Amino acid sequence: MAHARPADVDAIVVGGGPGGLASAIYLARFLRSVLVVEDGTSRAATIPRSHNYPAFPDGVAGARLVAAMHEQAERHGTGFRAGHVTAIERLPGGFAVQWTGGGATARKVVLATGVTDIAPTMPYLAEALQQGALRYCPVCDGYEARDRTIGLIADHGSDTFEALYLRHFTRSVTLFVVSDGVHFTGEQDRRLAEAGVARLRDPVRGIRLQDGRVVVTHGDTQSVVDALYCALGMDVHSGLAVTLGAEHDHAGYLITDRHQQTSVPGLYAVGDVAKGLNQISVAVGDAASAAAHIHVQLLEPDAG
After folding, report:
1. Beta carbons within 8 Å of 250's beta carbon, 6+ residues apart
2. Per the domain annotation, does 3 fall within a domain?
3. I want to staple 237 with a disulfide (CB 3.0 to 4.6 A). Which of 113, 216, 266, 302 is the partner?
4. Are residues 102 and 124 in the same domain?
5. pLDDT, tens digit, for every residue of 115-137?
């Protein structure tokens, strides 16, 4: 039987968003050696302003929140490395983590690799996001969209739910489709009609930003909405864990226990990459649970 070699650090955190940084803060305050490997692609950092994260009555820019958490983790002794993690290997008593430009071993690993929203094809995409003309998360900012003219671009009939979700905030919801291949059942059409959601049949041919609003071309017609939500899905960054054999659902979200540990012992997942509600506050809560469990596990004499 192979014996565990001393690891470089107690824990490596993969990802520098709120979930990863909160994990590092907790672990560092537990007097654990922790290293964060980040590639600068935090989804939270792109949020123009979050109004539902607690303690910020006027909202907080995602980049400001991430920067403050980074500074807090650094002040408590967290180490940081810039790079994209390319592989994680199981070792006796821990893991070896490789990233572009380096590598290290750790007794535990926290994945906070997040997700990427699948964006529509449109010019000035970044500008539309910054102005709030293009949005992805009605849980986050449906309140800000109340009583406005809202569009939703969908690629599957199951997006009926999101259209009805948005209808709670405004009377004016228009459902656009990305192609002729998008189909809705009779029951879905009935529910949309009863809710007053306009469903347009012609597929979207173009999307552009104009004076802070979004012009959607569908067929030979144009519609203008105050904000356009996208329900085109997400790319879940769970490949590192899946390669190790971690359980996941059909969408790729990692399945964890109540401590955020995956089915691979010693490998934890927090935030958007784990199955659950994609919210900053949830990611921070996940991080607290994972870090607390890691600390207790490492107190055991034979902890891996």
Report:
1. none
2. no
3. 113
4. no
5. 999 988 888 888 888 888 889 99
